[in-house]
Amino acid sequence: MAQPTYEWRPPEHGWREQDLADLPDDGNRYEIIDGSLHVTPPAGYGHHWLADEIRSAIRASAPTEWMIIREAGVRAPGGNLIPDITVLKPGAPPDGMWADPAHVALVVEIESPSSRRHDRFTKPALYAEAGIPFYWRVERGDFGPVVYRYELVKGVHYNLLGTVGPDDPVEVTEPWPMRLEPSAWPR
């Protein structure tokens, strides 16, 4: 049996943001949910390519003072999450590791086999609790990406605004008016 290449011990207390700095920079995504460490293996090239294309599409229509960041950390109640794409409002600090949710307008999660349940159930609940106004979940289907668009309602949960598939480009208004065309994105 192979020995681990990195020796670490879980903290004596629940996991906290400062504990993440002690973990290896090995490509895994380390997130904290209610004091528990969640580790997701690195995503494949297709996942990153799709994330880059979605980020570029959002960036192309963004007002200049907005920041669209790949894999930026976001603080959430009871933890720290790393969405695939984070849209930061004007006035957000231009650098840092963990965004305050008050500075976040939209988070985008692209489903992978290893993240499907978190992207559908766990993360939306935490993003809603953090007060993030919009959440998009992207599924990579056989015919192309499908975007499920959600809006925060009463600061408690997300309601589905609609879906955008590869055959139905649409104008959306969140967090500003833009056209989404998933047919232009990789499968």
Automatic annotation (TrEMBL):
CDD domains (UniProt xref): DUF820-like
One matching Pfam family: Uma2
Domain Putative restriction endonuclease span(s) in chain numbering: 19-175
TM annotation in the entry: none
Superkingdom of origin organism: Bacteria
UniProt name for this protein: Putative restriction endonuclease domain-containing protein
Species of the source: Micromonospora andamanensis
